[in-house]
């Protein structure tokens, strides 16, 4: 029975991993280990005590400021911790104590890392996207079996990854990387293997719709505030967060492209 206690545990579990995600994002490609070395203030270099590293609560307790120098702590820390906790709860709500739940948790850790890193640096880290693709392929095999991925629905799911990769890869090749990054194509490969053919297409369509709506909203916001430096039509907008958002919309709603098309045809 799914009780409030279950959701509370998974939320706390998620925030702990959210804290780890922040460490990975800040230390990736810096030569520092993700699992060793104490955390420290990015402004003054002060080593943090254990009570300064409690997910969410430390940020609130410290008032969003470093205990040593008083500099502001990035809102990235609590936002990532809360978002990861919320995603863990959502996955538990949809899949319960299924055998696939650990996969979705691990997938979420990798996807949140890529999303936040792309927002900060406008690039998807190769190490993380390759791990995600490998995990997605293992999930595909575990779902259909080795022989099952070469026939029927399994074959469609197997091909959905390369198809989505080719879609983004085409835009990357034609534009020489100005329209779309190759990292988005690598991410789409794993998305296709996780969601299957119709689910993958739906996630990508949602990504483009949400990305377009967000871009228009930000342009309007910049014009309202008469900003001289901000988003323009030539600005580079990280697309990985939108792809990942589309993936979770499909996971949580079970909508897919073929279902929507069938519903429209019947009407």
Molecular structure report:
With 267 residues, this protein is mainly alpha-helical. The chain has 2 domains: 1-97, no CATH class; 125-267, no CATH class. 67% of the residues lie in helices and 0% in strands. It is built from 9 helices and no strands. The model has no long low-confidence stretch (mean pLDDT 87).
Biggest sheet statistics: none
Number of strands: 0
Indicate the overall shape: globular
With helices defined by DSSP (H or I, 4 residues minimum), what is the helix count?
9
Task: Estimate nothing, just give the exact number of structural domains.
Answer: 2
Which oligomeric state applies? Answer: single chain
H/E series: HHHHHHHHH
Give the radius of gyration.
20 Å
- β-strand percent reads under 5%
* Low-pLDDT segments: none
Mean pLDDT: 87
